């Protein structure tokens, strides 16, 4: 079994498409107007975005999407998040021998960016 995609409710479909393109390089795969939804991805990651009328996600949740980057890129990414004034939920803070930051997208969904990737970490921490 393999993960197919992650689905997110969003308040503004075009704004979300633009956000995930600008921040993570995800390209539009397909889009529909009834209901208003789209898929964005990069060949490895795919997100399904569904516009929900009157969507106003305000409460805190740890349900999130996580992207991994290199340790060399992490500090610059954190500065970019801070400069953009995005709502930081947690971090930057230590995690799995690296670091993580969690912040909200324009619809209030939580995005995590971290290093090392879970795959990299698991390769060096095999449970016995």
Structural notes for this entry:
- The protein is α/β, with parallel strands linked by helices.
- It folds into two domains: 1-55, 2,3-Dihydroxybiphenyl 1,2-Dioxygenase, domain 1 (Roll), CATH 3.10.180; 57-128, 2,3-Dihydroxybiphenyl 1,2-Dioxygenase, domain 1 (Roll), CATH 3.10.180.10.
- It contains three helices and eight strands; from the N terminus they run βαββββαβββα.
- It has helices at 13-24, 71-84, 118-124; strands spanning 6-10, 27-33, 36-41, 46-51, 64-68, 88-95, 98-104, 110-115.
- It has a four-stranded mixed sheet with strand order 1-4-3-2, with helices on one face. Strands 5-8-7-6 form a four-stranded mixed sheet, covered by helices on one side.
- The protein is globular, with a radius of gyration of 15 Å.
Name of the CATH superfamily of the largest domain = 2,3-Dihydroxybiphenyl 1,2-Dioxygenase, domain 1
Rg from Cα: 15 Å
* Low-pLDDT segments, ≥5 res: none
Structural class: alpha/beta
> How is the main sheet built?
4 strands, mixed
Helix content: 25-40%
Within the CATH hierarchy, at the fold level, what is the topology of the largest domain?
2,3-Dihydroxybiphenyl 1,2-Dioxygenase, domain 1
Globally, the shape reads globular
List the total number of helices: 3
Order of helices and strands: EHEEEEHEEEH
Major beta sheet, strand line-up? 1-4-3-2
How many separate domains?
Answer: 2
CATH architecture of the largest domain: Roll
What's the total number of strands?
Answer: 8
